[in-house]
Write a structure and sequence with these properties.
four-stranded parallel beta sheet, 21% strand, PRTase_dom, phosphoprotein, ribose phosphate diphosphokinase activity, magnesium ion binding, Phosphoribosyl pyrophosphate synthase-associated protein 2
């Protein structure tokens, strides 16, 4: 990417794993006083990828690089950005490790939650892929004016609203049993304490109990009959919910179903499930390599976003304003 668009040779570096599975990084040219850009795409072995990145950044720092910018099109562990029962906010930990290693700036794309930027104490540029996906809709879907933008759960309704308003289209939201992403597993908290605590709460005081959630049967808010349905989200990893959403939309009269997302993780059997499903096309960007998945499933299409990353690198290196890359992007986008 860097070599083609920016006319810059790729830096000479050797990254390998020793027999004991330790990662070793050897930088084979001088980086003293240079602006270093470390580009790291996430592979299937995400933990090794993070260690490679940290070791390389630290190696550049100890070799007196002027600045070290990390270019991570997909930020790892971004889904683990909320506190769960007896869990931890892992994306905060990853952010802290990157800052500690010596990163001075981060370029990433479509963070799972925009608030992740606040986990860093360095500047973060959270670029957006939506302009590329919107362009794809306008150029590659001939009768897109007869489309409706669909959120497969109320959680992604904001993203769907952003797409719908920009394309001047309607919106539909699927709500009900199929939406099971944020469910809290039953754990020991519901079991009574073994020892009766005395003096903690006054006998006359009783803390009100929160009524447990119960999902209604599947409902589609909005009309999809005789329309093209375009399901939008930020990450496609486990495709079960997308397949279920496509079935629901087909039953309600949608005649063509597209799925659009920024990050195509497409883990394990995802390509096979997509191929066998009611989905007509899955459109993702190349923030994560997915050549193998495309061979398994011809329904997967790729939108190239390397242009915006290389422009971000060029502007940061030249000290130019980044606001050009964020034109017409609001707080909710």
């Amino acid at each position: 990417m860097g070599k083609g668009r920016l006319g810059v040779e790729l830096g000479k570096v050797q990254v390998y794993q020793e027999a004991n599975r330790e990662t070793r990084v050897q930088i084979q040219e001088s980086v003293r006083g240079k602006d270093v850009f470390v580009i790291q795409t996430m592979s299937k072995d995400v933990n090794t990828t993070i260690m490679e990145m940290l070791i390389m950044v630290y190696a550049c720092r100890t070799s007196c690089a002027k600045s070290i910018t990390g270019v991570l099109p997909y930020f790892p562990y971004s889904k683990q950005c909320k506190m769960r029962k007896r869990g931890s906010i892992v994306s905060k930990l990853v952010a802290s490790m990157m800052c500690k290693a010596g990163l001075t700036h981060l370029i990433t794309m479509d963070l799972h939650q925009k608030e992740i930027q606040g986990f860093f104490n360095i500047p973060v540029d959270n670029l957006r892929a939506s302009p590329f996906l919107l362009q794809y809709i306008q150029e590659e879907i001939p009768d897109y004016r007869n489309a409706v933008i669909v959120a497969k759960s109320p959680a992604s309704a904001k993203r769907a609203q952003s797409f719908a308003e920009r394309l001047r289209l309607g919106i539909a939201v699927i709500h009900g049993e199929a939406q099971d992403a944020e469910s809290d597993q039953v754990d020991g908290r519901h079991s009574p304490p073994t020892v009766k605590t005395t003096g903690a709460i006054h006998p006359s005081m009783e803390i009100p109990l929160l009524i447990p959630k119960e999902k209604p049967p599947i409902t589609v808010v909005g009309d999809v009959g005789g329309r093209i349905a375009i399901i939008v989200d930020d990450i496609i990893d486990d495709v079960d919910s997308f397949v279920a959403a496509a079935e629901t939309l087909k039953e309600r009269g949608a005649y063509k179903i597209f799925v659009m997302a920024t990050h195509g993780l497409l883990s394990s059997d995802a390509p096979r499930f997509i191929e066998e499903s009611a989905i007509d096309e899955v459109v993702v960007t190349n923030t994560i390599p997915h050549e193998l998945q495309k061979l398994q499933c011809p329904k997967i299409k790729t939108v190239d976003i390397s242009m915006i990353l290389s422009e971000a690198i060029r502007r940061i290196h030249n000290g130019e304003s980044m606001s050009y890359l964020f034109r017409n992007i609001g707080v909710d986008d």
